[in-house]
Design goal:
With 109 residues, this protein is an alpha+beta fold. Helices cover 20% and strands 28% of the residues. The protein has one domain: 3-Layer(aba) Sandwich (Creatine Amidinohydrolase, Chain A, domain 1).
Length: 109
């Protein structure tokens, strides 16, 4: 993956080009082949990966251009779930500062 500043710059450019409004980015989820625990290999949505660099299932993000906020929402199965980020493993709540996000919210799946 790239340095976090690359993702920050991409989101800033997108905000500038769109101008106003709210942008929703839905990451991909794990999908079972023939039953829930037998999953296909995970592949993150390309657009989500391009703007946020998070290759983890169950994430979504909102960029509110008018309010100037960027928020990531993550579905965690339990409190031990970690996100694999470009700079290592992190608990979801610790992503706010290094990714220059306004908020990060976790929800149970």
């Amino acid at each position: 993956m790239f340095d976090q500043q690359a993702y920050v710059n991409r989101r800033a450019r997108l905000r500038k080009e769109v101008g106003d409004g709210v942008l929703l980015f839905l990451g991909n989820a794990l999908v079972g082949m023939n039953y829930h625990d037998n999953e296909y290999p995970f592949r993150q949505d390309s657009t989500f990966l391009y703007f946020f660099g998070l290759d983890q299932a169950g994430l979504a993000a909102v960029i509110d251009i008018d309010a100037g906020e960027e928020v990531v929402f993550g579905g965690l199965r339990n409190e031990l779930d970690y996100l694999i980020t470009p700079d290592g493993c992190r608990v979801l709540g610790t992503l706010k500062k290094p990714m220059t996000l306004d908020e990060v919210y976790a929800a149970r799946m």
